Amino acid sequence: MVHHIKLKVNGREYEILVNAHELLADVLRDRLGLMGTKVGCGAGECGSCTVMMNGKPVNGCLVLGVQADGKEIETIEGVAHGTELHPLQKNFIKHGAIQCGFCTPGLIMTTKSMIEENPDLSEEDIREGIIGHICRCTGYQKIVEAVAATAKEIREKGREGA
Amino acid sequence: MTGYKTIGKSTPFIDAAEKVTGRAVYTTDMKFPNMLYGKILRSTIPHGRIVGIDTSEAEKLPGVEAVITAKDTPLIKFGIFHEDWYILAHEKVRFAGDEVAAVAAINEDIAGEALKLIKVHYEELPAVFDPKEAAQPDAVDINGVKNNIASKFHVERGNVDQAFEESHLIIEKDFYTTQVYQAYMETMAAVVKPEDNGRLTFYLPIQIPSKTRVTYAKALGMKIEDIHVIQPTTGGGFGAKMETVLHLIAAVLAQKTGKPVRIINTREEDFEGGNPRVPMHFHVKMGFSKEGMIKAKDLVLYAGAGGRACYGVPVLGTACFRHDQLYKYENVRANGYLVYTNMVPSGCFRGFGNSQGTFCIECIMDEAAEKLGIDPADIRLRNAVYPGFVSCHGWVINSCLLQECITKAVEAAQWQEKRKEKKSGRGIGLACCNHVSGYSAFFPPFHGSAAVIRMNMDGKFLVMSGEIEIGQGQKTAFAMMAAEALDVPLENVRMAPIDTDYIPFGLGCWASRSTALGGKAIQNAAEDLKGKILQFVSQEYGIAVEQLSIANGVVVNTQGEEITDLSEIGRKYLYKTNGSYLYGQGYVDPGTVVPDMATKMGNPSITYPFACHIAEVDVDVETGVVKVIDYVAAHDVGKVINPMGAEGQIEGGVAMGIGWALTENMVYQNGVLKNSHFLDYRLPGSKDVPDMKSIFLESNDPNTGFGSKGLGEPAINPVVPAIANAIHDAVGIRLTELPFTPDKVLKAIQEKKKNKEGEPCRNF
Fold first, then answer.
1. Best residue of B9, B10, B11, B20 to probe chain A, by most A CBs closer than 10 Å
2. Interface test with B, best of A2, A52, A99 (most B CBs within 10 A)
3. Domain-located, residue B17
């Protein structure tokens, strides 16, 4: 069964045909060519395919493409502003939070939503917040450091603004 | 050592920006025009004769372009150490997950449907899963070899029996290490593209793009040079991403259809048909003097090869005797048996058998220290090898800071203080390890490394190495080493993509070899290129070559005055030589001695890394849950190239060790894997791993790339025994079977209450 869906991805409107069983992660990758969303397990157990749907992080492998009809999606490709990286991306690079990089896009999406919701994050909050993600390379320490550094920058910026 | 401009400074990875933006292209992201999607039909039973396969219905399904079984493959027996592989199961299946047939179709859905239409008729055979049981004379025959023994390893030095008689204390125990899964985040995959000239181009997430061509050429009946391998960005490996039939199945489908074929393992398939750690059963006996000096060691090992032999062959020997270079052994004996079982073929996993062996030895060292009333750190200091030591197997310990690793770790972990303060359920444990940086017996023709550096017309540099990035930061370390050796800024160095048509034949990422060996080759290539650049400048500017050098990317004279910029030289050279680039070449011959097949005497690695780890744990005596709360890792890394990258190796290695110690285990029922998902195969999460402290000790090895040593594997080797020893310190139990799950912890605590000494408990 083929469905006609409309969705907005990284600010751009798309009208596409998808099969009923097609997953959002596959729609993004195979229909829209947005290969930055990685599929690590296909069962919602690793977090690699995390994208934002209407501002909330979701596993792209647990949402059907048809469920994204009328929704706004943000993927890793939409995080940087042109060539200017998001502060979180800069800190992931700076703090060595990236090794093989396969889990990175999903982690960026989740931690970006955490910081946007509340930049007042303790180490414990960060560890709790990324519990749904598996990173096999880093041991998480440098990811936690990168997120903490970004949250701090954003808190300080907020204070300057106020 | 001081005076370095690039190495030794924490440097962000040069490929991190493309990864953090989602631009990096992995094999699993690749598509080509007309590409077909392949899928593999896997055996559902652990052992059986294939009576018949009916593919006719699958072939009729619209969109299916090829269905293959063993008869469509060259049917050449091949393998890595033993030639007991076929591309697809021939006559028999030997494990649940064995590759029986494959299809290529216009999309994945149709390929999946087609698999369901293939009918395989099996005559089931009895199956055997435990290596010791499989080695019994009455066990079912798996591969036509006596007692299912795939290979044996025997070594004996000194007079072991007499040394036991002279021992003051003897400890004798069994240890069981589990089959665990590497769980790299990108599953195994391949895209294979047939070329018009009969060549095949393989796009593979692989640790050994050059070396694998030798095996694949044999399997496909092709020439090595016709196997062209390109390695896209690779999502981890940890030892698993070596030769695999998945790549060859894609190749046969590509040949048959004349189209590019992509196969990606699902996570379940990757669990079932991957290349997990070799499971082992050890019986170890060690004798000690009153002063804690090791008098003798006797080790018997049964290791499970799975249905066909993979890297289990050298893993067996490694588990038997690599750790003999950690302490000053004189009297040792090891008898190891790699046994075929009806399990998934097992192979390399970070640590490569040494982590299994280290678990046993380091637990016994801890127990001996306790029984002799010696501090566990002290017993190791007394036995530790030292610079200049030659082991009983002939290994020459050139540079070595093992003793310093122990003292620094003890200091950083507040070892003495914490051992004294006896908080309920809290304990601290220590373990050491040694390892190699390359191993000469794996590819006997050579085991060094080679590199080529090209000066581009803008005076910047392109480094070609056959050694591999799989996420560990290798490319960055290499670029830093090239920049340092050339004395140019890091941003003027690029690493060439891995394409076997252009790069040197690199043996790849295993045995913690790349930085020490690949780095030395790059250093040598840089020296060669520097000489050629200065020769050219000398001719062009009429200045004696001895008066020229490169500093910070410009050519200067002895007064330090700039003669010319390299961008000028790059362009001039290219124009003058009608488009030629200036190349520097270099290689390193590590001068090692391949261990003799019979005597096992040799000196297999260019250098030997060492480490000491200290773990602190909390054991909940009500629930049996163990939590690692603090961790210190001190490593003799020779020379730190990129401190941030080196810390990443340690933090990742320790996390992996924590998973192996506490939660990870592949659980089988009648040979069928029951936990092929991350939900029930529990990897460490962000709350299971403590913040840890990494300490680097620099022994500056004289023979390797800038004095560096391997780190990837030493980072995991001591983790399990450090945790085991910490659990003992916390609650007085000695666990000898992995993983240390709450049920085992509780049972051992109860046993301890009943007896004085807790008997180790098994639950399989």
1. B20
2. A99
3. no
Decide if the complex's ipTM is over 0.95: yes
Phi-psi region of B239 (alpha: psi -120 to 50; beta: other; left: phi over 0): left
| 3 state SS of B426 | strand
Does domain A87-161 fall under CATH 3.90.79.10? My reply is no
Residue B399 shares a structural domain with residue B459? no
Contact yes or no for A134 and B685 at CB 8 A: yes
The two structure tokens encoding residue B703: 């023979």
Under an 8 A CB cutoff, do A96 and B21 touch? no
Tens of pLDDT along A44-84? Answer: 999 999 999 999 999 999 999 999 999 999 999 999 999 99
Looking at the structure, tell me whether residues B431 and B368 fall in a common domain: yes
Across B608-764, the runs of DSSP E, i.e. the strands, are 610-619, 626-636, 668-669, 672-673, 692-697
pLDDT value at residue B337: 98
**B684/chain A closest Cα distance in angstroms:** 8
B16 and A93 within 8 Å at the Cβ level: the answer is yes
Whether residues B742 and B658 fall in one domain: yes
Taking Cα atoms as reference points, which of B412, B411, B435, B447 lies closest to residue B637? Answer: B435
Which of A26, A28, A37, A98 is best to mutate for the B interface (most B CBs within 10 A)? A98
Interface residue A102 vs chain B (CB under 8 A): yes
Q: A2-78: which CATH topology?
A: Ubiquitin-like (UB roll) (3.10.20)
Please report the number of interchain residue pairs, chain A to chain B, with beta-carbon separation below 8 angstroms: 167
Judge if B513 and B565 occupy the same domain: yes
Nearest Cβ partner of A93 from B17, B684, B689? B17
Residue B499 has phi, psi (to 5 degrees) of: -140, 115
In the three-class reduction of DSSP (H, G, I as helix; E, B as strand; rest coil), residue B206 is classed as coil
Q: What is the average per-residue pLDDT within B647-671? A: 98
This model's pTM is above 0.90: yes
Predicted local confidence at residue B153, as pLDDT: 98
Listed by start position, the domains of chain A span 2-78, 87-161
pLDDT of residue B2: 60
Note the pLDDT of residue B754: 87
Range of B511's domain? Answer: 448-588
Beta bridge partners of B300: B283, B335
Task: Give the one of B10, B651, B679 whose C-beta lies nearest to A141's C-beta.
Answer: B651
